[in-house]
Specification:
Blueprint: H1 3-12, H2 24-35, H3 41-54, H4 58-71, E1 83-86, H5 100-109, E2 114-118, H6 130-136, H7 146-156, E3 158-162, H8 163-166, H9 168-171, H10 174-180, H11 185-192, E4 200-205, H12 209-221, E5 227-230, E6 245-250, E7 257-262, H13 279-290, H14 296-311, H15 318-330, H16 333-346
Parallel strand pairs: 1-2, 1-4, 2-3, 4-5
Antiparallel strand pairs: 5-6, 6-7
Helix pairs in contact: 1-3, 2-4, 4-12, 5-14, 5-16, 6-13, 7-16, 14-15
């Protein structure tokens, strides 16, 4: 048993009246001991559920990110341009069709690099993970080493950090999610993590407003200069079409968040979010969009990709950015980006 870990466990697990928040250094130490399995299984499970009940603070999340930076994988810088980190809940989607895959291809076509990360089917939601949908599009990230992903990133502008292969220390903690039956704070950590050593534009999806506040506090402590928060579909960074998109932008003032409400009907983009019926149907729908065919999914993609093209500085106005997204689809540029990704991942450079 780790006596050092027990001390930290007692702080977060003493109940609603006597539990205490960890310092950044203590949170980093606790995360490090869990990742390295220096804490016992009983201690890890107890910490996860106690930390969820207490709720993590921005300071604690900053410490957890410090430990991830120390022990986790990092793709190396590919230049001075900020890379979009399109984060998504690791336990997947089960109601709405993910937009971030086609969005990423449109961003690549506009010369905006993108990194995603995630794992396989995961508790507690056990929804469809992004890596499954990428494989359906002919891009199998699961078979690549981290150095091969680095090569693909350098060649195409796209990378994917796959937790089972690239971060086995974190993968070893996944089984605890099933055993405790709840998302632990690691699930929040994954929404704000950037596995990239260069300049990044971190996009954080959230459902509950406190998550956004915790993320902002962690970014301020870690001097993260560029980030966007999105009250998105199922906690992802996909903008909704049936309601106002609630967004937050980082500002030069450390404790300030620029708030933006985007009404899709103001841009002719209102409608229903496309349901996720099956991975195969989702892949087929995405391929049709990439081939320039009209559909409800195309409208959702235009709304989502247009926002990120605008946020990435590729258009002066959101209206112009939405039009640019349509051009990149209709001209086949996004399809060409997929073709390059297929070629780069099917014949990767040797390890």
């Amino acid at each position: 048993m780790s006596h050092a870990f027990r001390t930290l466990l007692r702080k977060v697990g003493s109940g609603p009246h006597t539990s205490q928040d960890l310092t950044r250094e203590e949170s980093a130490a606790a995360t490090r001991m869990m990742l390295l399995q220096e804490a016992t299984p009983a201690q890890i499970g107890a910490f996860m559920i106690a930390h969820r009940i207490k709720r993590p603070t921005g300071t604690e999340l900053a410490g957890m990110l410090d430990a991830y930076d120390e022990l986790g994988p990092k793709l190396q810088s590919i230049g001075d341009r900020p890379v979009f980190i399109l984060n998504a809940p690791y336990d997947g989607r089960d109601r709405t069709l993910p937009l971030s895959l086609v969005t990423a291809l449109i961003l690549l076509a506009a010369d905006l690099p993108v990194i995603q990360h995630g794992g396989d089917i995961m508790p507690t939601k056990e929804g469809v993970p992004l890596v499954t949908l990428w494989a359906g599009l002919g891009v199998d990230w699961s078979r690549l080493s981290l150095s091969q992903v680095q090569d693909v990133l350098e060649r195409t502008g796209m990378g994917f950090v796959y937790m089972p292969a690239h971060f086995p220390l974190a993968q070893a903690l996944v089984e605890y999610r099933d055993q405790i039956g709840k998302r632990p704070p690691f699930a929040t950590l994954e929404l704000i993590w950037s596995p990239y050593a260069g300049q990044s534009h971190v996009v954080v999806g959230f459902v509950h407003p406190p998550t956004e506040g915790m993320a902002q506090a962690a970014f301020v402590l870690r001097n993260t200069p560029l980030y966007t928060t999105v009250k998105g579909l199922e906690g992802s960074c996909d903008l909704p079409r049936e309601r106002t998109a609630i967004l937050g932008f980082s500002t030069p003032l450390p404790d300030s968040l620029e708030r933006l409400h985007l009404h899709p009907y103001d841009y002719g983009m209102g409608g229903k979010n496309v349901p996720l019926t099956s991975p195969a149907a989702a892949v087929e729908a995405m391929l049709q969009v990439l081939q320039g065919k009209p559909s409800e999914l195309r409208e959702s993609v235009l709304w989502n990709a247009g926002f990120y093209l605008w946020r990435g500085g590729k258009a002066e106005t959101l209206t112009e950015a939405i039009a640019l997204a349509g051009q990149l689809l209709d001209q086949g540029s996004a399809w060409q980006a997929l073709t390059r990704l297929r070629q780069a991942t099917s014949a990767p450079c040797p390890v």
